Every structure is written in C-alpha cells, then in structure tokens.
Amino acid sequence: MEYQITDVVKGEEMDFKLPDSAFFEAVGGVEGMKKFMYNFYDIIYDSEIAHYFPQDREEFDKVKEKNTKFFIQICGGPKVYEEAGGMDLNEYMIRVHDDFSINEKARISWLGCMMEALEELDVDPKLKKSFWDYVESFSKLTVNTFSDGAYHPVYKRKK
Ligand code: HEM
Known about the structure:
Layout (H helix, E strand, L loop, with lengths): L20 H7 L1 H17 L11 H18 L14 H10 L5 H16 L5 H14 L6 E2 L2 E2 L9
Antiparallel strand pairs: 1-2
Helix pairs in contact: 1-2, 2-3, 2-5, 5-6
The structure holds protoporphyrin IX containing FE.
C-alpha cells in the first residue's frame, strides 16, 4: 500500500476517523497489537526522535506498555487504557503531547517508524490503510511547534 503524508496546516480544524475494528482482529487482537506496537516503539527507540522519550530502557518499556493500551482501545479492543480519567480521550491525548515540543519533522519521523512497523504486518492492505489514515491525521494534532512559533492544535470535537 502507499503511505501518504499530508502537510499539517497550522490552525486548521481537524477531524479524523478511528481505525476499523477489523484491523484489530486481523492483527491478532490484544496479543497481536502488543507485538505490533512494541515493535513500533523499538523502532522509535533507535530513531532520530528517540530523545523525546525516556532513555532508560526500563522507563521506555513502561511507556511502550502504556501507549500500547491506548492503541488497543482506540482500535476497538478492550478498554484497557485508564489514564484519561473520564476526559475525552482524544482531547486528553492532544494535551499529553503539549508537554513536548513536537514539530512537523518529528511527526514525519514518527510516521516513518509507523510505516516500518506496518510493513512488517501480514494484514490486508485495506485494513492497514484504515489504521494509517487514523495516525496520519491524528498525528497532526500532536504538532504544536512551528518554525514561526508555538500554537495549540484545534480539535473539532464530535457532538
Ligand atoms: C497518531 C499519533 C499519536 C498517537 C496516537 C500517540 C499516542 C500516545 C500515547 C497513548 C501516549 C501516552 C500518554 C500517557 O498515557 O501518558 C503518548 C505519549 C507520548 N508521545 Fe505520542 N502519539 C502520537 C504521536 C506522537 C508524535 C508525532 C510524537 C513525536 C515525537 C509523539 C511523542 C510522544 C511522547 C514524547 C510521549 C511521552 C512519552 C513519555 O511518557 O515519556 N507522539 N503518545
């Protein structure tokens, strides 16, 4: 499949679709998601954006486990991610990233790591695309630092 990355437009009102839950099933449920996402974070650990994350391996492994729970939940699996504390999950996730200066280049590197991890999956390209479309669009909302200064992403909340 082709992995397209579209540009972040500063101030653009963003919308996105969650991945098809058939992706979650095709990957192999919770265990399959763990393999997929742990591999993704291992790729991140060796990437040019590794410095955003804890350098200590044990701390990094904790991030890996926590983040994987989020992806399991967002893909339609069991609701195992408990950090949001009742807040809108998407808004919470944008807020988490506000603590880091994420620019367009970091987003592209992050998506590059994701592309690699997806390539290693033996899953119907149509389902991979549904996951890809989610990360490609949602990742725009994690970008909060532009060459002309910082800004807060605009999330169009579903009613
Ligand atoms: C689709 C896009 C993305 C999703 C769904 C996502 C998901 C997550 C999740 C679930 C967490 C853990 C939140 C928590 O429970 O504390 C997290 C943390 C984090 N994310 Fe992302 N992320 C995305 C994009 C990015 C990008 C583009 C970067 C660029 C560097 C990034 C960097 C980080 C960092 C540094 C943390 C904190 C790790 C720590 O706890 O030390 N994320 N992300």
